[in-house]
Every structure is written in structure tokens, then in C-alpha cells.
Amino acid sequence: MEDPTRRAVIGTAAGGLALALVPSTATAAAARAETRSGSGWRLRERVPWPEFMKGQDLLWGRMPRSWYEGPFLGDGLLGSMIYQEPGQNKIRFTVQHGRVQDHRPQFGSGWGTCRLPVGHVTLDPVGTITAVDWRLNLWDAELTGTVTTDKGTLSLSAFIHDELLVARAEADGEEQVRWTFHPEDAVSPRSASEAPPSGYTPNPAWTTATAGDVQQVLQPLTGGGQTATAYRVKDGTLLVTVAHSFPSGTEAQETALNKIRNARSYGIMRKRHRDWWHDFYGKSFVSLPDQRLQSFYWIQLYKVAAASRTGGPVMATTGPWLETTPWPAVWWNLNVQLEYWLIHGANHLELDSLTSTLDRNRDQLVANVPAAYRDDSAGIGRSSDMFCNRSVGTPGSGAEVGDLTWALHNVWLTYRHTMDDRLLRDTVFPLLRRAVNYYLHFLAPGADGKLHLPSTLSPEYPVTPPQDTNYDLALIRWGCQTLIESAERLGIDDPLKAKWREVLDTLVAYPVDANGFMIGANTPYAQSHRHYSHLLMVYPLYLVNWDQPEHRELIEKSVAHWQSLTSAHRGYSYTGAASLYAMMGRGDTALSYLSRFFDPASRYPCRPNTHYAEGGPVIETPLSASQSIHDMLCQSWGGIVRVFPAVPAAWKDVAIHDFRTQGAFLVSAVRKGGRTAFIRIRSLAGAPLRLKHGLDGPPAAVLSDGRPVAVKDLGAGVVEIALDKGGEVLVHTGTRPDPVIAPVPVSLPGQAWGLPPIPPPGPTTPVDLSAYLDNDGVSTHEAMTDGDFDGSGYTYPAEELPPAGPLVHEGLSFVFPAYGDAAKNNATGQGQTITVPAGTYAKVRLLGSASSGPVTSTLTATYADGATAQVPFTMPDWGGQPGAGATEVLRCTHRHGRTGTNALRVGLFEIQAALDPAKELRSLTLPALTRPQLHLFALSLEGPR
User: Fold this and answer.
1) Are strands 740-741 and 44-45 parallel, antiparallel or unpaired?
2) Rounded distance, CA 151 to CA 154, Å?
3) How much of the chain exceeds pLDDT 70, in percent?
4) Which H or E element spans position 675?
5) I want to staple 627 with a disulfide (CB 3.0 to 4.6 A). Which of 341, 349, 510, 561 is the partner?
6) Contact 815, 938 (CB under 8 A)
7) Residue 25's pLDDT is what?
């Protein structure tokens, strides 16, 4: 069915975007007023915001040891993650900033224009930390809690506002509060895993300066510009700010210094900070009966607001929380798109820095294409800096060329959710015209009379790039269709309109085989792939969709085939599948796929603080999971607003309020006992309203003043209602309901996100491994070549390991081996049988790591009665992150190599596996492995509690 409003397709000048999307305080308050004017009916909002949001908070009952476990703060530019300083009795507050990057494009986005680290602050207690009790208060966007040491207690609070990290600690028993800033070298986070490119020169060393009570760290850059960090500690309160300037080499210093000097009092800053966040949350409301998923949803809204603001830099793949990662830049072939989807339905377009970034960097987008095409084309390569600086190859060379067009689909979504023609006219139409023009230069007719595209890459699919790649064919079709409709709405008689129509009429059909959509011509989808780029025409472009019965079989088998090959799947493979099944109206199936992302046994699960990693932090997947929830609750593609289109059967009660849809409608709706109670729709632009209501029976519609309005039945559960700009309509069946928005009852309780306290273990019996140690994986700084942990000469730094002898980790007793002077200190998996003290045990606890990747294998438990049992376990790679059933015992700041230190931060982990507590254990046999390899430093047996 044609969408009559899609003529208004894409656009946005950055200034117009800010004016259109960020309402005044008075307007925002009015939009959320509990009572709507009119004598007919009133929509009442009864959300006890502080109480409700408290139920979504993240809680920590034990110390987080890494970025994916700890609290995180941000204001769209400055970001901080809080966790234990690796190997030390300190608490780290990272200090990173979204504008801080290198400026040497000749070395690529991974090194030359990558985001650069700034530093971190540590809170240094006098006593040994024994416990933490922390809360990330979402309503106030503030970390609060206590740190207990053997000397006393530190009460802690921290927030980020207006590019200031504000942290306060008060001592009780501790002698004093000590804050220390630690600068970090301005080198690519990729340095932990790869050597710099040829000709790369390190940035100069940082220097320090003092201006009264303000300390500064100044980082000049080889490629021009400067990063300046300024900080002050006064009366236990820490203020830190970061500024970056380019090409100026001195401006950042003055900017950062003035930011600290001009800071208001703690009370004023805190109030302004809280006021911003309270206003932010009130712009929309979602309530689910699944407590853990409901909490996750609100954490993602907090996360995206902490990571992005319109006018700021486009989100890097790590967000503003830079850590060791292969991804210290902006990735345009999926990551950016997924990062911003949730802001539309959540009614938070004030966070759309993607649109403002593309608008601001038009000249660079033009410069990215070869010189021969710059008169009328634009593009962007796979990854870039915040200025979109990355050249794009040409079709025929196997290049990935569609990424700008896909990014512009996000901008079109912003237009569709505002219906602001300034966005359409000033940004998207001209940019999309250039992006599509780049394709048009290479389309050529084949023997079949159809237009064909030379070889291009379907993002990251590891085969020779085919002709007629589905990724690009879908984007070409969407782009031409959107340009035609945009020109019509804007009244533009574009000379290319006939060409766009010709392309739509003669472009080759999508390559399809017996399994569904292929990667491209003569290239089936034949090996597992995390991306769903070959399915873009289905989602999110909806060119081939479930409203087209003739395509349902093709859609279904394509999605099923993609999901049937699982080895390369990652988190967004599951969130993408959830959204695809939501389009089909299959809520239970959608939820089952989404649940795989939250399954701790998954290879790539959502982490305790809702962040996620693939080789390093990647922010897009958790944010896309929120869009999957949106797709279950409300969809608005094809000119039809669909309310509760794919609600799982277990979600009997659901509420949404001021959910923004295409056509610029605000939708409020309540589901009770598995049935839709009412739908309220407010029109912000006067666009035609077509509604798939899902009500039981013929709907009635009444305006807010009580006047009924005609409901035109279009069939298939869709109705059309005339609604003027600013008008509101209540849609229902039977007796008119009293429309109230409030939190729904929780029927599926769940544990809070964060880290709960660990219950005390049963009695533990350390096992002597001295007879089985066969590898030296540790060296000192003075003798880094003493040992070879992984076969490549790398070792743990002895200076950051616990001393030999008794070691207690979270109530478990181990014996850590001796190291130094070529001493063997870990046992590798060689099939050896370890004799254990006779007894009955509930669990085996292994302390170690793996090399060359994580080890998933089994131990063989032998019992006194002769029975044996296979005991499965997974040991994380020493440079990786712990998965299900694993905890991080320590994380070193580096590792040793044959030629010096290496920046990879390697860890030791404790994992557990269940034994039969009813039988007496005699021995455990390790698996026989080569690569990846197990490295066991200590082993204990835990008895029943």
C-alpha cells in the first residue's frame, strides 16, 4: 500500500534540526501535561517517576573489575566508566571525550584519525577495599554509594554535566580522600593488538601545567591540534574537564582552564544536571511486565543520552567510553545505523548527532569519492573519524560503496518522524541525490535489458565481491524511490527524475535462490555471517515486506536460512532477527531471538552493565536491542501506524506513551490482560493517519473535545482517521475508557543489572598442581624473555600478579604458583590426570586463562565407584572478557613480549563447573589441546554449602 506521506522523504539542516527537534521547556512541559484540554476526555499520566526509575537502576554489591561490569556516566561528549584499577587497590574513573582524535588521515581511521585516549582518575583509599555498595541512579543520572575498606568507609557520588566530571567522596574512618589523575599516551587503542602502520610517528609526550589550584595535562598532536585536561580537587570534590582543538594547538588549554575556573557550585551543577535528565525521561514512557527487560530498556535510553547530542560528534563505535579496542572510529556499514534507531520511537530526536554530522561535513563526503565524480556525487568508506574523512572505492573494484546511502536512511527516518520539510529540503534530498548519483555512474544495461551493478562488497561477507549485490540493489531502489517522492513533496522539477524512474523500472531483480535472498549474483548466502546486509530490502527498508503476501514465503525462508548458519553470529544477529520477526507479527519468536542476546551462556552476551564487546566495546548492539523492543510495541512503516503488532503472549500488560512514529504522531496505548484497552494519537504535522489498531471489534474514534470522528475501514485491520495538526484522537471499542498511562504490573521479576553480591561459597580445598605445571607464562620487567605463555613469546607481568602462596578470591581459597627464573607456573591441557584429595564436592573452581582464543572443552571427573562424567567448561582468552560462569580475578595493565611491553591488558579468570556432590571424587583429567590452549594456574574444589 502506498504511503501518501513518503513524498516527504529525507532532510535536515543542522540548525533547522536543532530548532525543530528540541522543544522549549514550556513546550515540553505542555506536551507532557497530565490533562489535555477539552471536555470530552482526558489522558492522564500517572507515572511516579522517581519511584519507577528507581526500580530500573543498576546495582553493585561487589567491585566491578572491567569496563563491561562497571557504572558509566556521560553527557554526550565527556564519558567515564568506573571499575577497579587493574591489579590495584584503587577505583578507576576513566576520562574520555568524543571529540578527542588524531588528525593524520594518511594512516587511516584505525590509526591516523582514530579516537585517542585521554586518561583516568583513581580514588585511592588508605585501607584495603573489602566491599562496595553502589547504585547508578538513572533518574538523577548519578552514581552513589559506599566503598568499605579495612580502615573505614568512603561515601561516593559522581555525575557528568556540561563536560565536567563532578565526583565527591567523604571519608569516615579513612584518613583522607585522595584523587589522582593519570594521563594516558595519545596512541591508537589498536596498539594493544597490532603494530602501527609504516611511517607512523608517535604523538609527542604530554606535559603538565599549573594555574593556581587547577592542574592541567597538555597533549600536543603530530597532525596538529591539542587535547587539554584540566582538573581541581577541593574539599573532597573533584572536577575534571577535557577540551580538544584543531587545527589550533593552544585553544584547548584555555578552554579547559576556563571551564574549571567558571564552574558553579556543586549544588547548582547538581540541580541543573538533574533538571536536564528529569526533563529528558518525561518525553516518552514504556512499561513492560518483564522487569529485567524493562530495566534494560531504560538503561539504553540513559546510555544513548550519555553518548550523543545533536550538534555533537557522531557516536564512535565505543561511544564516548574509549577502551582498548580494534574499533576506535566510526563504522558506517551497520554500527552507526543501529546506534540511532531507538531515538525516533523514544521521542528523543535531540540526540541525533548522525544527522547533524552528515549535514556539517558535506564537503568531506564529496571529497571522499574519486575526483572524476565530485561534481555530482558523495560517499563514505567503511570507517571514518567524526568528520566523515574516509575515501570510498568504486563499483567494479569490489568496494563497499553503499554506506552513505544507508546512513541517509537514518536521516530520512528523522524527517519522517518530524515531517519537517526543512530537513527534507536542506540536507537529505541534496545528500541522497549525490549518494545515488554515485551509483548511477556505474549502472549499465546487460544482455537481459536490465540495469546491472558491477562488483561491490556486501559488508564484511568474506567472499569475492559479486555483481548485483543485494545490499546495494536495495539501497539504490530505496534511494531512487525516496528522491522521486521528495522532489514531488518539495515541488522540485529535478532533471534526474526521469533517470530515477528508469532505474526503478529496469534495475535487475534481487538475486534469489532456493534459500532466499542471496548475497549477490551467483553468490549464495552459504556461510555464517553476522550482518544482515543482504536482507536490507526487508529490514529496515521495508521495500519487500509482510504486507505483500506474495513475498511472505521468500522473507520467511531468507530469515530462517540466515539464522540457520550460526557460527559467525553476534549480538546484533539476534536483535536483527527479533526485528524481522516482529515485522511478521510474531512476537513470541521475536522475543526468543532477543532473549539469546541476554543469555549469559551465549558466546557474545549482553554484559552485566548492559554494554557489549566484540574484540572491544561496541555500543550499537544493546541500543539496537531497544529498537527490537520498539518493533514489538509499535511500527510505522509503509504509511501505517501499527500499535502492539508483535507483543509476546507473556506480556499481558503493556503501556506506551508519546511514542513517536513516522508521520509525526505521538502514540499512547495500553494493553491489559492481553487486549488493547485504548489508543491515543496526537498529530504533530497533520499527516494522513492510517492505523492498524489491533482492537477487538470495530473501533470508535473521538476527539479530545468529545466530538466523534469518522473511521474509514481500509481492510486488513487498517483504518483511516482525519486528524488535523495538533489534534488528538482516542480510539477504542465498546464503552469509552478512561485513558490513563501508568506503569504496568511486573509479572516476570528479574534481578537488577549490575553485579549482585556473591553468596558465600562452600568450603574450598586447594589442589596441589606443582607436579603438573609445564609452562612458564610469567616474566619480570627486568627479564621479559623469561617465559612463553602463548607460543609467541608473550607473558604476564610478574609485578602485577599476586604473590606465590595462598590466594583468596571472593571467598574461595587457592594456592598461586611461584614464578621467576624459568619456573613453570601453569598447567596446559595435555590430557593429564590430576589426583585430588578424596571427598565429595559440588564444584570445581579453575583459576587461569586461555591463549589463541577461549577454550570450550570438558574435564573428565572420575569418582570412587569408577564412574566418570564429562564436566563442560569455558575458559576465556587472556586478552578477552569473561563469559557465563567466569569472573575476572585480575587484569594487568600490559603484557611482556620479547621486545618489550605490549599494551594488551591480559587477565586471569576464575571459572566454575558442577560436580556430582553425592559421589566421592578421585581425579580430574584435563583435555588434550593444541590451539587454543588452556593455562591452569590454580585449582580448588568447593564442597556443598
Assistant:
1) parallel
2) 10
3) 96
4) strand 675-683
5) 341
6) yes
7) 38
Contact predicate 294/288, CB 8 Å? yes
**Cell 572510529, residue located:** 329
Q: What's the whole-model pTM score?
A: 0.91
Identify the band that residue 716 occupies on the pLDDT scale cut at 50, 70 and 90: very high
pLDDT tens per residue across span 85-94: 988 999 999 9
- Give Cβ neighbours of residue 136 (< 8 Å, ≥ 6 apart): 57, 58, 59, 71, 72, 142, 143, 754
Q: Are 419 and 426 in contact (CB under 8 A)?
A: no
Residue 33 has pLDDT above 70, yes or no: no
Residue found by looking up cell 540541580 in the block: 271
* DSSP letter, residue 595: H
What pLDDT, in 10s, does the model give residues 559-569? 999 999 999 99
pLDDT for the residue numbered 349? 98
Nearest-angstrom CA–CA distance, 793 and 25: 61
Please state, in angstroms and rounded to a whole number, the distance separating the CA atoms of residues 890 and 905: 10
Q: How many CB atoms lie within 10 A of CB 292?
A: 17
CB neighbours (10 Å) of residue 899? 9
Domains belonging to the chain, first-starting first, are: 14-20+291-643 (1.50.10.10), 70-263 (2.70.98.50), 758-942 (no CATH)
If one counts every other C-beta atom within 10 angstroms of the C-beta of residue 37, the result is 10
In 3D space, the residue among 887, 875, 873 whose CA is nearest the CA of residue 849 turns out to be 875
Residue 397 identity? S
Hey, which residues does 680 pair with through a beta bridge?
Answer: 668, 730
Model confidence at 16, pLDDT cuts 50, 70, 90, reads very low
User: Phi first, then psi: what are they for 383, rounded to 5°?
Assistant: -135, 155
Residues facing residue 228 across a β-bridge = 218, 243
Question: Which amino acid appears at position 376 of this protein?
Answer: D
Instruction: For residue 595, report the phi and psi dihedrals to the nearest 5 degrees.
Output: -65, -25
**Residue 152: how many CB atoms within 10 A of its CB?**
15
For residues 718 and 632, give the distance between their C-alpha atoms in angstroms, rounded to a whole number.
18
Residues 411-423: what's their mean pLDDT? 98
Is pLDDT at 891 greater than 70 in this prediction?
Answer: yes
C-beta separation of 138 from 305 below 8 A: no
Grid cell 551509483 in the structure block, residue:
439
Count of Cβ atoms closer than 10 Å to residue 214 Cβ: 19
Q: Which three cell numbers stand for residue 37?
A: 484540554
